[in-house]
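Exercise 7.
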Amino acid sequence: HAPSTPQSSDAASPPPAPERQPAAVPTAAQPPAPSDALTIDAALEMRVALVRDASSVAIATSNGGAIVSLDGEGLKSLAAGQAYWATDQGNLAVGGDNMPGAVWVQADGGGIVAVGDRWYRGRVLLLLRDNGILVVNYVLMQEYLYSVVGAEMSPSWPIESLKAQAVAARSYALVHNVRHAGREYDLDDTTRYQAYKGVMTETNTTQAAVHQTSGEYISHGGGIVESLYAATQDIVNKAHSGFGMSQMGALDLSRQGYRYNEILAVYYPDTGIGRIDLGE
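Solution. The predicted structure, written as tokens, is:
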């Protein structure tokens, strides 16, 4: 999507000016009926490139962990909260110890992993490539979206706008998971794809938006819509030829009482909302 999507806003900032909305709002597709089934959110790992072509990168784990080979062999223990440098020395080294060219960084017992100055859920893959180190975060869709929603919108916005963002971001991520299946990562952490900053942009409201729309995506003709979006309608018009969600517009509509499926119907006409369930 366009590179000027907003980050979390300062609570002291004045409210943004309202955006002009379409004269007629289309009939909104109803979201799927509630279900207790697990969804794709709890099973699919997104592969997010955090660092590319680096000569070195600092890693850490919150409560201890290990460097593990691709076949599961423990190669090096990591002390809780201690930084270790992964370096390209012609081979991959971590904390001065030589490693294979591809290793996992895993935290113990539900802990999180730091890459540089940010902390991430899931696990991290270090890959040595011709141009340096590639760092890829493997993170469950649910946990990925916790962060994306808070990086793309202010967590203080009304829950219906956050839910619209969650569905749009999930739909976009699903498309890129399939599109780049043969690549080492699905997308990166920048607004070239979707902003993603790890746990720092999670809040209870972004988590609620993800849980309340679990597994839901924008559908059309039996497929998944690549749900483009940008900060304002002007940017949507310029970057996406008018097709996509204005985040500021979604904010305005949510303040008018629109539910998330109604917001999505405004910006993605003639679409529905599907859900990928994994069974009971």
